[in-house]
Amino acid sequence: MIRQVLSALALAALLDVAAGPAHANSSSLVSIQTPRGVKQAFILIRPKTDPAASVILLAGGHGALGLKSASAMKWGAGNFLVRSRERFADQGFMVAVVDAPADKQDGMNGVFRMGAAHAGDIGAVIAYLKQQAPVPVWLVGTSMGTFSAAGGAIASRGTDGLVLSSTMTRTKPDWVIAKSHPDSVASMDLPRVSVPTLIRSSIRILSERNFRTVIVGLFGETGGMITLTREPSGKRASTIGCDSSTRRPMGATMRSITR
Question: Is 7 in contact with 91 (CB distance < 8 Å)?
């Protein structure tokens, strides 16, 4: 089941493809109150069949979608996770596209996204989804949304899996977190993540631009792998999963291979 969910999530989250035909999934705007007493809105999409799992989609940028209905928002309609939400439902997932909470409608910065308050808000959404369907819940974040997804997985509030796309691995010098988290998500307490994880991040090594990091498995001591792969080129074939490129997924390792 885990392998099936991970494969489907990877295809849906990492492939930005053209829009398909009209969908018959059921969409609604949901607003819940989180443990800290704020309203948290999200688009809920129910697939046509019983869901195999649920996914929480966390957009990048400031993350304040300004949801007005299940189909209308002030910002973020073009974000690839947001615009691909129906594709997740087409794969049999129940989907929650999460807005910024009511007290952060001016936007969420990295500090808030990594904090306990935001993790609690995400935890409330996870609990709601599990009430709707007793299936695994995966967090899927892109760009700045990877702070939110990683933070939610670190807090381990019912999270069953984690996917990070366009992962933040560089912190701008003028950001508040520049000193505490110089490598952005890679500076977070990733060894505490104890669920199956996939991370994709475009990186540059030795002036080569066609490498990527793919992490599949657990961050903890129970196992998991980090594989440094090379995209196809005219000079050499891709190498995926070679023993020499696979290592235990600790935070320091991730930072070392994303420099």
Answer: no
- Find the domain containing 92 and state its range: 2-16+23-200
Taking the CA atoms of residue 229, residue 230, residue 236 and residue 242 in that order, the dihedral angle to the nearest 10 degrees is -10
**Nearest-5° Cα angle at 189, 154 to 158:** 5
pLDDT digits (tens, 9 = 90+) for 120-167: 999 999 999 999 999 999 999 999 999 999 999 999 779 999 999 889
Q: What angle do CA 139, 69, 110 make, to 5 degrees?
A: 40
The answer to whether the pTM exceeds 0.85 is no
pLDDT, tens digit (0-9, with 9 covering 90-100), for 9-54: 555 545 554 445 556 899 999 999 999 999 999 999 999 999 999 9
Q: Residue 9 is part of a domain; what is its CATH number?
A: 3.40.50.1820
Q: How many domains does the structure of the chain reveal?
A: 1
Amino acid type, 48: K
Q: CA-CA distance, 37 to 172, in Å (whole number)? A: 32
**Residue 186 in domain:** yes
How far is 90 from 217, CA to CA, in rounded Å?
25
Q: Which residues make Cβ contacts (< 8 Å) with residue 185, sequence separation at least 6?
A: 146, 147, 150, 164, 167, 168, 169
Q: For residue 222, what are the contacts with CB-CB under 8 A and spacing of at least 6?
A: 194
